[in-house]
Design a protein that fits this description.
two-stranded antiparallel ribbon, single chain, 60s Ribosomal Protein L30, Chain: A
Length: about 170
């Protein structure tokens, strides 16, 4: 059985913060506002994975009212999502994601983001595709007010419990 989920996230820029996308720090004068590290790409991927498993969304599991999640790395949240998938015997089949930003230029950083995320999810790099586009000056994103991310993920039922791979260990 294959299950599919969609994730979408938006964050506005904020001064004095690091810009983290896909677990990679991008050199830029502003970061993204958010309760965690505001990694919009990883958030969209988490939501896609949760959606594919029928488990709601990131805000349900990691509310911004909980001090444990203040400034947390979104990769830590992703690891928690992967634990939820493992408990339900799902394995990530593939992920396709797209960042939407007028600035900064993201194309040079996409391979590193894909590698970072593939490593965190424990899938082959070829099973994750990260791309970026510009809104061509249209709307809030086009005015450079923030960044959006869209992600689609597919899951499959693990054939054997040992087939489920999470974090740095096989289970």
């Amino acid at each position: 059985m294959i299950r599919m989920g969609l994730g979408i996230d938006f964050h506005r820029f904020a001064p004095g913060r690091k810009l983290i996308l896909g677990g990679v720090e991008i050199p830029y004068e502003r970061g993204l506002a958010g309760y965690s590290d505001a990694d919009v790409l990883t958030h969209a991927i988490c939501d896609a994975l949760l959606g594919a498993a029928g488990l709601g969304d990131l805000g349900q599991h990691f509310p911004d009212t909980d001090p444990r999640f203040k400034d947390i790395s979104s990769l830590a949240l992703l690891r928690e999502v992967l634990q939820m998938l493992r408990a339900r015997k799902y394995r990530v089949n593939n992920i396709d994601a797209c960042l939407v930003a007028q600035e900064p230029r993201l194309a040079p950083h996409l391979p590193e983001m894909a590698a970072q995320l593939a490593g965190a999810i424990r899938i082959e790099k070829g099973m994750i595709n990260i791309k970026a586009t510009t809104p061509e000056g249209l709307g809030a994103l086009g005015r450079g007010e923030g960044i959006a991310a869209y992600a689609v993920a597919t899951l499959r039922a693990a054939e054997e419990p040992e087939d489920v791979v999470v974090g740095d260990e096989e289970h």
